[in-house]
Amino acid sequence: MALRTKLTELFGIAHPVVLAPMGAATGGKLAAAVARAGGLGLIGAGYGDADWLAREFDLAGDARVGVGFITWSLAGKPRLLDLALARSPVAVMLSFGDPTPFAAAIKGAGAKLICQVQSVAQAREAAQAGADLIVAQGSEAGGHGASRGTLALVPAVVDAVAPIPVAAAGGIADGRGLAAALMLGAAGALMGTLFYATEECLASPAAKRRLVHAGGDDTLRTTVFDIARGYDWPAPYTGRAIGNDFTRRWHGREGELARVASAERERYAKAAAAGDVETAVVFAGEGIDLIHEIVPAEQVVTRLVAEAEACLAGVAAVRAP
Length: 321
Fold this sequence. Notes:
alpha/beta; eight-stranded parallel sheet; 11 strands; about 15% strand
C-alpha cells in the first residue's frame, strides 16, 4: 500500500512525512537524509544565524530541502529570508506569527509556503495568507506550542481550511501516529522529536540519550528555559521539554527567575555549553515513550511508513465484509 496524499503530490515526494525544522538541531545533513528517504526535510533556522544557515544549506548538498523560521524572529532580519530563498528551497515554513509580510516573497521565489498553527483561527489566517500546506500542531509537541490537543485540533483545521492540505503535528512518534493522522483527514505528519533521536541530528549525544531514556510523563510545558536563554516568547506559547534540576528549581517561580535572570543566564549558558542536561533544555514531545534508540534518519522514515501501511491495511481488513 503506497501512502499517496495531497502532501506527497504537492512536494513530489514518496512519503507523507515532514521533518520538523527544530532550531539548531535540524541541520542540513538531517534534512537531506529525510529528503533522500522520500520525505520532506526542513532545516531549522531557529532564531536566525546567517552563517549557520548558509553552512547547513551547504551540508544538504543537492538534496531537495526546505527551511523553517520562527516568524516573529524574522522581524528586522530580512537578509535571513533572502539568504534562504537564494538557495531555492522547496518550501519555507513559518511558525508562531503572522506569515502575511513574508508570503509574497516566498511564493514569488517558487517555494511552497508552509504555516504551522495552534488554533483554528490561526489556520484560517494562514489560508488567507496563501499557505500551500498548514501544519496543525497540538500541545503534545516538543518545543514551543500552545494548548490544544492534536486529536481534536487536526480534524477541525482540516475542515476549516479545505481544500488546502493539512499535516498533523504533536505527539506523533511512530507509524501508528502517522496512520492516525491520515485517518483524521490530514495529508501527512510533521515530526520533530522522533528525528531528534537520529544520528544526523545536531543535538548533543547527552541530549539524545536523555530523550531516549525519558518518558512522556517526564515532560512539561514551561517558560523557564526561555527566561534563562533571554528569549521573550509571546503569549500563549510555552515550550515542552524534559524536566530536570532546572525546572524543579524554577518552574512555578518564573517571576523570581526573571528578577535574577542576568545571573542565572550566565550559569545556564555555561551549563549548556558543557552539555549539562540537568540544567540545559532538552525539548521533547510526549511521544518519547515510543523512542528507544538512536538510529539513522533513513531507517526512521522506512519504519514509519511500513508501520503506517500495516496499520491502515489492518483497518481495511476489519472493514472488509
